[in-house]
Write the structure tokens for this entry.
Amino acid sequence: MITPNHNPWHPNDWQSELKQAFRQPKALLAYLNIPNDAANGIDLQPDFALLVPRGYAQRIEQGNIQDPLLRQVLSLQSENERTPGFVVDPLQEGNAELGYGQTPGLLHKYQGRVLMITTPACAINCRYCFRRHFPYTDHKPKDQHLALKAIAQDTSIREVILSGGDPLLMNDDGIAALIRDIDALAHVRRIRIHSRLPIVLPERVTTDLVTTLASARCKITMVIHSNHPNELNETTQRALACLREAGVTLLNQSVLLKGINNDAPTLIHLSELLFDQGVLPYYLHMPDRVVGTAHFYLDDLEAQPIYEAMREQLPGYLLPRLVRELPGGIAKTPVNFAQKQVLSFQASA
């Protein structure tokens, strides 16, 4: 059993760590001792830039071009291929007819909840990112006052979801000010933060951040993002323990990705390790059909045996909900295999 150090990090630690991140594929491959003859198919000058913190790179197996963590972050030439059905905006987040983007910085998808785009930046560039083509120039952080004004005027909103990019790439003062502004809106009860940083850059959990989260009026939930058990170690456990001690509810969402976690033992191990580190599995997302990501895609027939094996071996509280997001949907859509079988039987009858 790992005994974590529950002390948060100094506010400058994460920024120093991020400055040392890998930004060139050649530098990352050299660090991992991957020879040139094993690196065929790598895009050395990708349009969607490579960005990998060193602490995350340390968890990648040396010399293994197929490492599941490396596959999440390494730019491949296959990203430049165009596959029918894979589009720039699969969730239609730029579709004004669906009510999205009417206020800069806000996406009002679901009843009672609103998503705020806080920053376009991330600490790691996941190659399967569904917002890799998102028009962030239309949702600038400087327009947050417009977003807050819109939330203040809509008393049906009970929850504000901070997203991006990654909201934890805001500095501590910026996050503190934003949470204070949201706290001042009496009809808002909950703040949800979606962030990959506790996994890829745990040093972001600073003393100032923990103080801000612990002192908020609104109940804080943080949805972290881990796809593979090898992403979890002593450092992530320390960061997550600090967040829990600040009163933050911790959930995890994963994406089902070919070549990374498309087998039941890996996902079962991930759920168990997450629970060991104080996080409940929340969602297992079917991958979005984003242009440049077809090599990660699994369809329902491939997902079904994986999820059924998970359901057989995990207790219900450790089984994430298998979902997909559909444009204009009132919520995430569960992938219901049993229902499909019934419908298929009725159709054949």
About this structure: The first strand starts at residue 106 and ends at 107. DSSP finds twelve helices and nine strands in the chain. Confidence is low (pLDDT under 50) at residues 340-349. The beta strands are 106-107, 113-117, 159-163, 190-194, 219-225, 249-255, 280-285, 321-324, 333-334.
